[in-house]
């Protein structure tokens, strides 16, 4: 896959780019230190089990990246690859086994699962204290009520990037575009916890560009390539692009773009995350952070 001659992230004024890839690397380095300390103090190694059902190519890339980075920070990585026609009962049985395995502290079933399997049932079958995706209703409820939840990785990564870049978020007006259970809704909860004034937009929102122009912070999680344009932004807004969309190029190749039109948004924003190299790496780093947290809690820390 050829990268375009002038990547839009090149020759941007310093401070404009929120470098999620670099931040994720420092986060993983800290996790590796904490994993070594946990091994030394409690004789326990955090274990992450990832289950992939079917052969979706994108999922295979993410699972491979996750396993590599899990091992790099000193954790135990276990992968279960099941065929696309695996009965739902077999997947539930595997989850029960992983729930009971004392060497496994985090369980992730890669989404989407094949159509014959009920994803909500799968998510609800994972022990909440091992639900390192943070998708389980128990964790969603704890997040909503300010309890000790495991927080979904992508919104957690976005929150860490925003706090690192802006410091105190209180009083800022944040617009989250998207209301899914895995990104938009938990993202709104985290921003509320940081005392932002939060607007959650979606496909029924009227005059979305006008709503976005009110925002100090825009988080785009819609799944529509380059939808958010520069003229949707208040000058100086901070933009977090969660989108991951593969688009076809004229030369027959393809490339990954976000939900934000980077070329028109970057000049207007005060800071923006690139795709790739922004939220994606933070998602994996926060998965490892959640696995460490789950392991620490399992020994009473
Ligand atoms: N970087 C990472 O680690 C991750 C990235 N992603 C990416 O984030 C994006 C969102 O993922 P996910 O939350 O699972 O997506 P979903 O498809 O579950 O949700 C999309 C949301 O966007 C809203 N939406 C769709 N079209 C519009 C529109 N025209 N105007 C306003 N809102 C709209 C939908 O509204 P409604 O509710 O009304 O249908 C819905 O709430 C995707 O690009 C995905 O690839 C996802 C997970 C992790
Ligand atoms: N149970 C479950 N949990 C998930 O967290 C989950 C999931 N299922 N299903 C799929 C989505 C998607 N997702 C990504 C994670 C990292 C990158 C990532 O690291 N992207 C790199 C680029 C990778 C590439 O080169 O394409 C980047 O944005 O820089 C992307 C996407 C997690 N997901």
UniProtKB/TrEMBL annotation:
NADP(+) binds at residues 178-180, 244. It catalyses: (6R)-5,10-methenyltetrahydrofolate + H2O = (6R)-10-formyltetrahydrofolate + H(+); (6R)-5,10-methylene-5,6,7,8-tetrahydrofolate + NADP(+) = (6R)-5,10-methenyltetrahydrofolate + NADPH. Pathway: One-carbon metabolism; tetrahydrofolate interconversion. Keywords: Amino-acid biosynthesis, Histidine biosynthesis, Hydrolase, Methionine biosynthesis, Multifunctional enzyme, NADP, One-carbon metabolism, Oxidoreductase, Purine biosynthesis. Homodimer. Catalyzes the oxidation of 5,10-methylenetetrahydrofolate to 5,10-methenyltetrahydrofolate and then the hydrolysis of 5,10-methenyltetrahydrofolate to 10-formyltetrahydrofolate. This is Bifunctional protein FolD.
């Amino acid at each position: 896959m050829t990268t375009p001659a002038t990547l839009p992230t090149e020759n941007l004024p310093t401070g404009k780019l929120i470098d999620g890839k670099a931040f994720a690397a420092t986060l993983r380095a800290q996790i590796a230190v904490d994993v070594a300390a946990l091994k030394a103090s409690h004789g326990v190694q955090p274990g992450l089990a990832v289950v992939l059902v079917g052969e979706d190519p994108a999922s295979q890339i993410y699972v491979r990246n996750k396993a590599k980075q899990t091992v790099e920070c000193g954790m135990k990585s276990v992968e279960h690859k099941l065929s696309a026609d695996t009965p739902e009962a077999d997947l539930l049985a595997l989850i029960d086994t992983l729930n009971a395995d004392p060497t496994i502290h985090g369980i992730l079933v890669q989404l989407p699962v094949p159509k014959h399997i009920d994803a909500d049932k799968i998510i609800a079958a994972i022990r909440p204290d091992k639900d390192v995706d943070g998708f389980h209703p128990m964790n969603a409820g704890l997040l909503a009520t300010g309890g000790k939840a495991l927080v979904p990785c992508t919104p957690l990564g976005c929150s860490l990037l925003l706090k690192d870049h802006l410091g105190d978020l209180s009083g800022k007006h944040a617009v989250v575009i998207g209301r899914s259970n895995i990104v938009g809704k938990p993202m709104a909860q985290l921003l509320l916890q940081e005392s932002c004034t939060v607007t959650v937009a979606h496909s029924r929102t009227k005059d979305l560009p006008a709503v976005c122009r009110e925002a100090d912070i825009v988080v785009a999680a819609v799944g529509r390539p380059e939808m958010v344009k520069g003229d949707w932004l208040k000058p100086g807004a901070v933009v977090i692009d969660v989108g991951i969309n593969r688009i076809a190029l004229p030369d027959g190749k393809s490339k990954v773009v976000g939900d934000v039109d980077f070329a028109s948004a970057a000049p207007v924003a005060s800071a923006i995350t690139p795709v790739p190299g922004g939220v994606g790496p933070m998602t994996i780093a926060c998965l490892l952070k959640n696995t460490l947290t789950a392991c620490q809690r399992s020994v009473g820390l």
